[in-house]
Amino acid sequence: MSDFPPCPQCKSTYTYQMDELFVCPDCAHEWNPAEEPAEESGLVVKDANGNILQNGDSVIVVKNLPVKGMAQGIKAGTKVRNIRLVDGDHNIDCKIDGFGAMGLKSEFVKKA
Fold first, then answer.
1. Please, which of 4, 68, 69, 79 could form a disulfide with 15 given CB 3.0 to 4.6 Å?
2. Average of per-residue pLDDT across 33-54
3. Are the C-beta atoms of 67 and 99 separated by less than 8 Å?
4. Residue range 40-48: average pLDDT?
């Protein structure tokens, strides 16, 4: 039995080699072992489309969001600049014009 590395996404040990790529049958992830993945330290936050967000990015709200205590909510298409990623349920801290400091969930934004 040969020693193939575990899948970097789902950590499955049932990986196999196909040409120069390794393949995971559980999650269908393919990767090249020659390309070293960038070691990400800490928090990884993805937007509604699966793009990785970073501190300082600009995002666009993809859904109308109600805001407690306000007559109207945040409308879809609102651009939010200079986000800060935090650990927790609402993983984006930002400042929105007309609303002030807010916490947003990354599933309701897309990278601008």
1. 4
2. 79
3. yes
4. 79
Place of tokens 């967000």: 53
On average, the pLDDT of the chain sits at: 88
Whether 1 shows a pLDDT value over 50: the answer reads no
Provide the whole-model pTM: 0.62
Residue 89 CB neighbours (<10 A): 7
User: Which residue reads 């269908």 in tokens?
Assistant: 28
**The token pair that represents 43 in the structure block:** 């928090």
* Structure tokens given for 83: 């986000």
Exposed (0-12), middle (13-18) or buried (19+): which is 7, by Cβ within 10 Å? buried
Alpha-helix residue ranges (DSSP H) falling in the chain: none
Distance CA 73, CA 3 (A): 54
Q: CA geometry: angle at 110 spanning 108 and 112, to 5°? A: 145
